[in-house]
Write a structure and sequence with these properties.
- The protein is an all-beta fold.
- It has a domain of about 130 residues: Type IV secretion system, VirB10/TraB/TrbI (Lipocalin).
- It contains no helices and 15 strands.
- The strands form five sheets. Strands 2-4-7-8-9-14 form a six-stranded antiparallel beta barrel.
Length: about 180
């Protein structure tokens, strides 16, 4: 006959919400922070990136995405700097991992008002032209002003510092069934 151990059994069961899916509609914004520096200078298209949610996301009283949820993505498109234009990139988000390890695919982008293009602005002028500006109220008086010349400098690389607050915008609805309630 074998002795039965009197040690307590650690059978902890996490309380999980019912399995009716909750759908976050396309166009939903999720605040995140990038986990590493991202730069067009030393990264390539397809390079994997990680982002962390900065606060809990609720629908009514239900916490849908908890703080510190990991979002994974990659650089979908990158443009090198050229004369007159700075470098740019588009970052696609493809996976969400909740703090308990549950993972599901998703479709979204790091949002910018420029069609999700990060960077890509006009580079600095190569020269400044001095020109007189005559005052209309003070006859015969002119002030010297400068204006940008037509030639532009070589564009610069675009860099997102680590820890920067960003937004993910969902491009397809995100259906979540696994949500912890405690």
């Amino acid at each position: 006959m074998q002795a039965i151990s009197a040690e307590p059994i650690n059978n902890i069961q996490l309380e999980v919400r019912d399995y009716d899916p909750v759908e976050l509609p396309a166009g939903t914004f999720i605040p995140v922070m990038n986990a590493q520096e991202i730069s067009t200078q030393y990264m390539t298209e397809g390079q994997k990136l990680k982002f962390l949610s900065t606060n809990d996301l609720f629908i009514y009283e239900t916490k849908i995405i908890p703080e510190n949820t990991m979002f994974e993505g990659y650089i979908e498109k990158m443009n090198e700097p050229v004369i007159g234009t700075n470098a740019s990139m588009i970052i696609r988000i493809s996976k969400i991992t909740l703090p308990d390890g549950y993972t599901t695919p998703m479709k979204g982008y790091i949002y910018t008002s420029n069609n999700n293009l990060i960077g890509g602005g006009v580079s600095e002028p190569e020269e400044w032209i001095k020109m007189p500006h005559y005052q209309s109220r003070l006859k015969g008086t002119a002030s010297l002003q400068i204006k940008p010349g037509e030639k532009k400098k070589m564009g610069e690389h675009t860099t997102l510092q680590s820890g920067l607050d960003l937004m993910i915008i969902l491009t397809d609805p995100l259906e979540i069934t696994h949500i912890l309630t405690n």
